[in-house]
Automatic annotation (TrEMBL):
Residues 8-84 form the 2Fe-2S ferredoxin-type domain. The keyword Oxidoreductase applies. PROSITE patterns: 2FE2S_FER_1, 2FE2S_FER_2. Keywords: Iron, Metal-binding, Oxidoreductase. This is 2Fe-2S iron-sulfur cluster-binding protein.
Amino acid sequence: MDAAGKHSEIALEVDGRQRTLRVDNRMTLLDALRERLGVTAPKKGCDHGQCGSCTVLLDGRRATTCLTFAAAHDGARIVTAAGLADGDRLHPVQQAFLDQDGFQCGYCTPGQICSAVGMLEEVKAGNPSFVTDDLGGEAELSDAEIRERMSGNLCRCAAYPNIVAAIRQAAR
């Protein structure tokens, strides 16, 4: 932080690459990624945390980057949809979105994919959702369970049936 307390120098690992930058303490993580680092996978949709287009994996958990300050995440590990692939080999969720035609215009797709990856990890960890029947057991990944867990990610093209099918495929 500078002497006036208005700027901070932060280090981030973004898609496997160490990055250092100086940010205004009021700058969102989304703006730091897009405007300062040129990372364009997370999209600016609503800028109010309502659409999920800016979702990334932040230290392994899904997060809407438009609602968090970059300065609060010094040392964080960020994975965007662009960083999920292993070279030319797509992540299983990315492949499932292609196989199931889980996108139309594609604007929300990076956030949908990151959210789906994070959601599947939450299921694997045994974290229940609002619609989970057995809170003590393993959540059955029904369509209703997928829709509830993905409800923070909106698709203006309404590709929801294909998104659910893609997540179901990736979960196998």
